[in-house]
Amino acid sequence: MKILLLGNDSTYIYNFRKEIILRLLEEGHEIHISTPIGNRINELIKWGCRVTETQVDRRGTNPVKDLKLLLHYIRLLNKIKPDVVLAYTIKPNLYGGIACRLLRIPYINNITGLGSGFLKKSVLFRNLLTFLYKVSLKRSFCIFFQNKSDLNALLEKKIIKNNYELLPGSGVNLSEFAYKPFPSDRTPTFLYIGRIMKDKGIDEYLEAARIIKTKYPEARFNIIGYVEKTQSHYSEIIKRYEDEGFISYYGYQSNVKPFIEETQCVIQPSHGGEGMSNVLLESAAMGRVLIASDIPGCRETINENENGFLFEPQNTSSLILKIEKFLELTYEEKRRMGKNSRSKVEREFDRNIVVDAYLKKIKQICC
After folding, report:
1. On the CB side of 96, how many CA atoms lie within 13 Å of its CA?
2. Residue ranges in the chain whose pLDDT is less than 70
3. Spatial distance between the Cα atoms of 265 and 365, rounded to a whole number of angstroms
4. What is the model's pTM?
């Protein structure tokens, strides 16, 4: 079979879909990938994937650019003539889904989060997005959801009916993200991994770091991620906090494992719109304690007081309380919570669950 993957980032496809791609290649399928060219693209090509560069304006709302993306997908589908299309992330789901529907090509969607726009934009924008989801998902062979909240949201709006399944996010590769011994308690270390932007909760993390450091000067607050180009003012803010000694900023890192390994606790203060947090899953797999906003896509990874803590979204005071609660634990209690994180992902979030679900659906299309 010819199988086409639609995505908005080559690193995302490599990091979270490589197991599916490798299994499909092993079975002899011809794999095509449509994505912006970026990191990890060479690895995908070396495996035998055929890559088409596709510009996707991930956060933009320009209708002309979106129409161009739709037309690009239609031309691409006519050229490749895939037997099945696998779509990931918002715009490939929307416009790839519409293109597949128009050309009567079987497609499988993965809702990796409805996005902050679905939650917070104007009524007009939400209505437009609802319409696009209805049109794009109506003929989907299967819609995979990463959390129940997104699933229920589309059910309530009658966007979907019965062609859906719930997956444990993207899952986590338990061998690649192996358990690591819990770090020393001499320097309690916290870590933020993600794009530097308001909706990801960077403001709450920075303010919490400033306040906690005045009370617990031995604590360290690290940040990994690039500044979102539409919110470039954070570059100056990050630099100021670093100059004042509240945080350490390491920019974008292609390999986050060494940073997670030296961290006791990973914090994800996102405001919403997550599918299932890969940051939390990978950190839990390595045996680290989690602190996260009590939102869909984060809360599923945490059993309160067992492997981490949840706090009220966009509430810095609530975040600080949970950080202090963690700091006041004994070393053995922290270490035990880290082990509980590993046990939880082993039980619930093994990536093989996701791979098997995709293979099953593809075989149903094939047969």
Report:
1. 30
2. 60, 116-121
3. 43
4. 0.90
Report d(CA 256, CA 225) in Å as an integer: 10
Is the separation of the CB atoms in 47 and 22 below 8 Å?
yes
Neighbours of 183 (CB within 10 A): 20
Question: Is residue 288 within 8 Å of 266, Cβ to Cβ?
Answer: yes
Nearest Cα to Cα of residue 353 among 146, 70, 192: 146
Q: How many CB atoms lie within 10 A of CB 218?
A: 11
Q: Is the dihedral of CA 352, 26, 275, 151 positive or negative?
A: negative
Give the type of residue at 278. N
**What distance in Å separates the CA atoms of residue 52 and residue 242, rounded to the nearest whole number?**
40
Mean pLDDT of the chain: 94
| Nearest-angstrom CA–CA distance, 298 and 310 | 9
Helices (H), the chain: 10-26, 41-47, 63-80, 90-91, 97-103, 116-120, 123-137, 148-156, 202-215, 234-243, 257-261, 278-285, 316-327, 331-348, 351-366
pLDDT in tens, 96-137: 999 999 999 999 999 998 876 666 657 888 888 889 999 999
Output the six-digit token pair for 288.
Answer: 């680290």
Summary count for the chain: helices (H), strands (E): 15, 13
**Strand order of the sheet with strand 164-166?**
50-53, 30-35, 2-6, 84-88, 107-111, 142-145, 164-166
User: In b/e form, how buried is each residue of 292-301, taking b as 16+ CB within 10 angstroms?
Assistant: bbebbbbbbb
The helix/strand/coil state of 106 is coil
pLDDT at position 344 is 98
Structure confidence by residue, pLDDT tens digits, 167-210: 999 999 999 999 999 999 989 999 999 999 999 999 999 999 99
